[in-house]
Amino acid sequence: MKKLAIVLFAFFLASCAKQSVFMSKQTVIRDEAVNSNNIVMNRAGDELYVANIDVPTVTIIDVKTKKKKAEIAVGREPRQLTLSPDEQFLYVSCMYDHRVDIISLKKQTVIGHIQTGIEPFGLVTSQDGRWLYVANYRSGTLSIVDLQSGKVKKDIRVGDRPRTVTITADGKKLYVPHYLQGKITVIDTKKEKVVKQISLAPSPDQEDRKKSQGIPNTLEQFVIAPDGKKAYVPHLLTNVDTPIHFEETIFPAISVIRLDIDEEVLDERKELFEEINVTDVNNETMIVSNPYDIAFHPNGKKAYAIMSGSEDLVVFDLARGGNATQVLRRIQGDNPRGIVISPDGETLYIHQAMSHELAIVKTGGEQAYAKAKQIGKNISLISQDSLPPLVREGKKIFYSANSDEYAAEITKNNWMSCASCHSDGDINGLTLMTPKGPRNVPSNILTTKTGLFMWDGSRDDFTDYIHTVQGEMGGMLQYDPSKPLPPDVQHMFDVLFAYLDDPSSFPVPKSPYREKDGSLTHIAKKGEQLFFGKGNCLTCHGGKYFTDSVKAVDNNGQLTTDQISFLHDIGTANVLDRSSSGDARAQFKNPRTPKQWDTPTLRGVWATAPYLHDGSASTIEEAIVRHRIKEVEQLSEEEIKQIAAYVRSLE
């Protein structure tokens, strides 16, 4: 009996020790709304915690001394973080390791890990600290983690690409924006189920195409105002009705949600030329781009929004109509992605994600004519960059819409970055008009490994994208694309290629359609046999990358647009498609017709809907059926489903 008591006591101690790894022993009830973010401040306002995103560390900053207290190694791609209510623990989503790391702030080290779904992104703790809610970007789920055991209690299916997570002050509701869909899922924490989905309304077409309009997408945050009545959502509007043009396609916006009824307040949306209409010395509207995050003055009278593309701070006076009253141009550093405000409302701290610095801005106070002003030098967040210098340089350019920073402007007047269409480097789920016809925005995953570029295979060298910069983004118009570029401008394309080519930039996403052990499902195995057999898919989608475009080479093994043997007509042309006579970079030797299409890779294709060059197929099954070839015509409906199951499993 005595031995049994000792064993039970030992088990009890072990259980307590395990519990202490994941959560605090004491209960502190938090009473304010919290949103997951890449930068977080404690309640006292004396410490900052920053997830360094593409550097696998979290940095702790002493606010008083403005110095780094610690830099803690964590898993790959730490995207967002959140505090426990008693502020003893910091939880960090490590996106590419599919886990949450737990940091003891007392010990300043990682003390545990929690396995999640595929690519966790946003996360918040419950108001009593018992639960952790994690949005799994690729799985399309929200995990409810029991912090006593460190295990997932339940996965709630919420839909495509859940991004960040916000909890209300009373802890009764969670809000989970969907990155590309313009939707926000509302979850009842007690019932542990979805109770509503808010859809942001498109901004209506206008006769003047240079005025703000389009489909809401790229939802970056969901920040609740201090009074708890409304939330602000920074995002883009993408106009798909006219050919891509820097002044007519991408617009910044901030939508407002009423939280008592969970509906958008349409007449309070902040849009360029309307509520965002601060003029410069020439009395012209200052263009800002890629809104990312928002902080409110503690009294709710002002809001401060960072524009990650144009690298600006926009100040909104909410007490006097809600319009923007100041644009603080060019915050020192590169690519602002997170912002927090001190408890007294006097100081803003801005996370510069590409230069890995902390910028400090004085708000100037709550008065109507007070002006925000940056002070001092930025604080370095990392001891060493994990990216090679050329890759870092290319990544900065990819995310930048700053028209003044580089050897040549990559966009005209700060309008758009590469990431404005390739959201976070990937797809935006939209089909845009071009002079050649409608084009589905492709993913950058494996883009440098899979042969020719563009849907019609009309580019064989990355510098050919000067045509995109000139024709769509409005930059580099002073250069003749048919001639060699100046060395410093050519360097911009070289480093962009280095970024796209780096294996860590766009890893092929794990498929949620496989078994838990990573193996193929029963139906996918049948599809695999059909893929390589009766379906004859291998003819075009073969090799390591499931494409034949890599074979489009000359006698020296170099990619060439002259090799058109691997362009195909499978009957998917759109009535709006137009022939092209080629372009200047290729000396007009690369003409294309609507019957010549490049074969896209199938690796990770499950995550790139819609499909085909014009985005006309919403599912993989539909894309297969659209192949007007005899092998597909001989497949049964069940066989098409089986092939689709196999294709969805490809990683």
TrEMBL record:
Start and end residues of each Cytochrome c domain: 389-500, 522-651
Entry-linked NCBIfam families: beta_rpt_yvtn
Example of a GO MF term: electron transfer activity
Keyword Aminoacyl-tRNA synthetase applies: no
UniProt cross-references to InterPro entries, sorted A to Z: Cyt_c-like_dom, Cyt_c-like_dom_sf, Haem_d1_sf, Host-pathogen_enzymatic-act, Lactonase_7-beta_prop, WD40/YVTN_repeat-like_dom_sf, YVTN_b-propeller_repeat
PROSITE patterns: CYTC, PROKAR_LIPOPROTEIN
Pfam families: Cytochrom_D1, Lactonase, RoxA-like_Cyt-c
Natural source organism: Anoxybacillus thermarum
Record's keyword annotation contains Iron: yes
Entry keywords, A to Z: Heme, Iron, Metal-binding, Signal
Name the record gives this protein: 6-phosphogluconolactonase
Signal peptide limits: 1-19
